[in-house]
Amino acid sequence: MTDAELAAHLAEVAGRILIEVRASAMFEGKALGSAGDATANEFLCHAIRAARGDDGLLSEEEKDSTERLDKERVWIVDPVDGTREYGEQRSDWAVHVGLSIGGEAKVGAVALPGLGSGTVLRSDRPTPLGPVAARPRFLVSRSRPAREAEEVCAGMGGELVPMGSAGAKAMAVVRGDAEIYLHSGGQYEWDSCAPVAVAAAHGLHCSRIDGSPIRYNNADTYLPDLLICRAELADEVLRRVAALR
C-alpha cells in the first residue's frame, strides 16, 4: 500500500468510526466532540505506528515528542478537524491524514464524512478544477472572520462564505464551492498539512499569506496564517494582503 493509499484508507475508516460514535446517541455537544477525538485518535495513531513504524508522528490529540524532529518523514494528523461542528451534528468537519517529507506536505487525504460515507479527497487522485466564479468566494471562520480576508474580499468584489473546519474550507476550494481560503487567525500544523497536500496536488496555490512556503515538522507547531486559492487569483490576493501591512 502506498503512502497515499494508506492516508486515504485511514481517513475514510476514521470517518466511519466518527459517524458511528455520533450515531450511538451516547454523547452530545462537547462530550461528543471529546469522545470522537479520543476514539479516532486511538485508531489513527495505532494504525500509523503499525504500518509505518519508522516514521515520525504528530497528532493534535497526542502528547508531542521531539523524536519526530529527527525524522525526514512525519505523519501529521487531526482526528477531528472541526470538533465543534462535529459535536453540533453539522457536516463541515473533517479527518486529516497528512505526510510531511523534508518539511513539505507531500501526501494527504481529507475525509468529509458529513457529506456522505466515503467522501475522501486525496493527493494521489486529483480531479480537474472547474471555472473560477466571476465574484470570488472567500471562505472564513463562522465566528472570527480574518480581517485580511474581509478586506481583500471587499477589494475584489467577492463574497464571504462562513464555514467550519479548516479542512472543510480547504476542500471547498478543491471541490469548486469557493475560490479562496485566506486565514490569519492562527492554526497548527495538523490543521493544514493534509489539506495543503491535497490542494497542491489539485493545482491550487498554497502558501503563507506573505507568499512564503508553508513548512512542517517544526519544534513549534503553531502556524499563524495560510492561503489556499485558485492559482489564477493568487498574485492579486497576495498583492492586496501585502498592501494591508
UniProtKB/TrEMBL annotation:
GO terms for biological process: 3'-phosphoadenosine 5'-phosphosulfate metabolic process; sulfate assimilation. PANTHER family: 3'(2'),5'-BISPHOSPHATE NUCLEOTIDASE 1. Keywords: Magnesium, Metal-binding. It comes from Erythrobacter litoralis. SUPFAM superfamilies: Carbohydrate phosphatase (SSF56655). This is Inositol phosphatase. GO terms for molecular function: 3'(2'),5'-bisphosphate nucleotidase activity; metal ion binding. Mg(2+) binds at residues 60, 78, 81, 191. The keyword Metal-binding applies. Its cofactor is Mg(2+). The keyword RNA-binding does not apply.
